Amino acid sequence: MEKNDFYELMREQEKKKREAGAESTADLYRAVRNRFLRFCGKETFSFKELRPLQVTDFMSSLRNEGLCVNTVNSYISCFRSMYNKICRKARYKPKIHPFEGIRLKREETVKRAVTVKVMEMMARLDYKDCPEQAQAAGLALFSFMACGMPFVDLVHLTKDNIQKGGRILTYHRQKTGTLIQIQISTSMKYLIDRYADTRSPYLFPLLSKETNHEQYKALLAEYNRQLKKIGERLRLPVPLTSYVFRHTWASEAYRQHVAVNVISQALGHTSEKMTHHYLARLDPREIGNANELVINKVEKLIRKEKIPLFMI
């Protein structure tokens, strides 16, 4: 294998990402490499051979495969990043940069949020003969009530994340490392108790210490399959996925006139640069007050009615 082989150099970058624990980025690197290999049809390819026309043709081939604009943009952005890193390491400066003039404009997507009414409908649904759906619904409701917590963070929660006498849930986002602190509501406590297992360190014992990234992805895929079935039972116009509940919390918080910087911090975003530079970290009570506004209807429903999903 020649030292300038683009495929091998991309594979090395993927390996480094995996060693650093950035599995999702490594998966993206692998997908881009495999697609470019298929596009070129050559067993070896020097990164110094890459030309602007090849990049634009590669973009066209991705679109022709039926990939959406944002997915193509993600692939090309990743492709460019890998190429630039390889050039810097090799101290190579192309006469004409192969990505010169390429502008990646994000396409507006259909909103993935549902209404709080849908959350109530999910809580009321009879899951007696559908234990897999019951589990998915419980996780989804917890995700919503925990300020739109992502699935990856939810399944990695341990008993050590519960602090201050069981009142505060404290964790760092897997994706960004951002510190999140949330008051534990009554309904969140119901769900934590429902899934408690003394044999597991996790609040929701779906993982084990031996779980690898591929097994995690299979777990997420199964979660989304069950959510889709729930959405079909409720005859929703959009499919339910793990990210719907994050969007739903954010949308409802905005509708309730919660300040954008509070929403940003509750979600663990790092893109609100001015917010993070100029505002002190909010007291968990402030995020708690915002969360009360958002989950109020679901909380009342669970407290006043005997919802099977929350009966231990």
TrEMBL record:
<keyword id="KW-0238">DNA-binding</keyword>
<keyword id="KW-0175">Coiled coil</keyword>
<dbReference type="InterPro" id="IPR025269">
    <property type="entry name" value="SAM-like_dom"/>
</dbReference>
<dbReference type="InterPro" id="IPR002104">
    <property type="entry name" value="Integrase_catalytic"/>
</dbReference>
<comment type="similarity">
    <text>Belongs to the 'phage' integrase family.</text>
</comment>
<dbReference type="InterPro" id="IPR050090">
    <property type="entry name" value="Tyrosine_recombinase_XerCD"/>
</dbReference>
<dbReference type="InterPro" id="IPR013762">
    <property type="entry name" value="Integrase-like_cat_sf"/>
</dbReference>
<feature type="domain" description="Tyr recombinase">
    <location>
        <begin position="109"/>
        <end position="292"/>
    </location>
</feature>
<feature type="domain" description="Core-binding (CB)">
    <location>
        <begin position="4"/>
        <end position="87"/>
    </location>
</feature>
<dbReference type="InterPro" id="IPR010998">
    <property type="entry name" value="Integrase_recombinase_N"/>
</dbReference>
<feature type="coiled-coil region">
    <location>
        <begin position="206"/>
        <end position="233"/>
    </location>
</feature>
<dbReference type="InterPro" id="IPR011010">
    <property type="entry name" value="DNA_brk_join_enz"/>
</dbReference>
<dbReference type="Pfam" id="PF00589">
    <property type="entry name" value="Phage_integrase"/>
</dbReference>
<dbReference type="Pfam" id="PF13102">
    <property type="entry name" value="Phage_int_SAM_5"/>
</dbReference>
<keyword id="KW-0233">DNA recombination</keyword>
<keyword id="KW-0229">DNA integration</keyword>
<protein>
    <submittedName>
        <fullName>Site-specific integrase</fullName>
    </submittedName>
</protein>
<dbReference type="InterPro" id="IPR044068">
    <property type="entry name" value="CB"/>
</dbReference>
